[in-house]
Amino acid sequence: MLKLxxxxxxxxxxxxxxxxxxxxxxxxxxxxxxQGLKNLxxxxxxxxxxxxxxxxxxxxxxxxxxxSGYLPRLVRDGFRxxxxxxxxTRDVAELILKDSGHLNEKDADFLNRHHLSKxxxxxxxxxxxxxxxxxxxxxxxxxxxxxxxxxxASLRFRHAGHILGAANxxxxxxxxxxxxxxxxxxxxxALFPDPVSASDGDPEYIVIESTYGNRVHPQGDPADALxxxxxxxxxxxxxxxxxxxxxxxxxxxxxxxxxxxxxxRLDSVPVxxxxxxxxxxxxxxGRHLSDHRLDRETCRKAFGIARYTDDVDASKAITSNPFPxxxxxxxxxxxxxxxxxxxxxxxxxxxxxxxxxGFQAAGTxxxxxxxxxxxxxxxxxxxxxxxxxxxIDMLSAHGDSNExxxxxxxxxxPRRVFIVHGEPDASEALRVRIRRELGWSATVPRQxxxxxx
Length: 453
Known about the structure:
With 453 residues, this protein is of the alpha/beta class. The chain contains 14 helices and 22 strands. α6 (222-235) crosses α7 (249-262). The longest helix is centred in the N-terminal third of the chain and has 27 residues, at 87-113.
């Protein structure tokens, strides 16, 4: 009997882990960290529901931390199999996992130096060396290539859009075909290819994300919307701070700013990319040209407009610079990174603007800003937020409800659709749409709930 169990991203948008099990064979699709609310983050420290030594393989749809971030811990705790991913996903994962390991070590060191932990000493969830060991388990798979796994199982990746290297995964186990959406990107995206709805045969089951299962993104030109925010901020002598995901969102923002400068708008406004990881991720765009829409020359021109600040002194110089400018900095939900220093410096002044350009998970500073917070706790102190807070939903890298339905409609009716990676309202709204518009059976799993396929 083939069984499916969601060990994460069930009832929430974080910690994606979906386990396929049949006659002792175990395949884990995605292996993400829980982020956001404390009760979610605490699950990262709990024993893994299955012994990592008993997992045969991990299939990684893309490298975002909520899909890949638990891999170093899984390997440290005994996983010995292969981690299958596209080539670009492997390269992006190297940036993200090493950075995550470094931040874990840094946080533990801070707690120990200031005696702020109830554990003595505080230990990181994993470190940089653990991340490096995890990378040694990667085995890259080309898009649209079917490979054989153990015990007669097979895997095929197809483009999902979303970020560099992102894929949906078609897995065949015990003769049953299951398609995992990963995170579905946008149709007509400026940088990344359209999500592909295809299968070597009709899938019996589809596991689909539902981040925006209850929302439709506004229509319009993202570059124009971005330009309006920049122009009104500059007009009042302010600085625009954009918390941005280092992989995908940062590159998209720079691309749209380049397009605006080509038309003569924002000509004299300097753009800073203040995130070492985002700088490295931008370099990867030139190394994986077949995974996105831009040619080498366009990459050179577009990404050449930003001033890259890869050291602390250069980052501090941005803060002390009084002139209008655009600062793109990680992290995208303001959970950490250099953007926190910019929020402390520019958040109190009403002439400045903070632009939210992506999904903001529950329990993050980004969501607090989204909900109108007038102060944020940063580095142990409360910082007043008097700056304008703007949001451009059309910049999202996640497909909205209509796009999720469009992707699903490319398949013939499966036995059942499983709806994951969404807050409860979003997942339930998508379930209702699937039932009403397609007439398909759809289920929103609870975490740990097991299904016989």
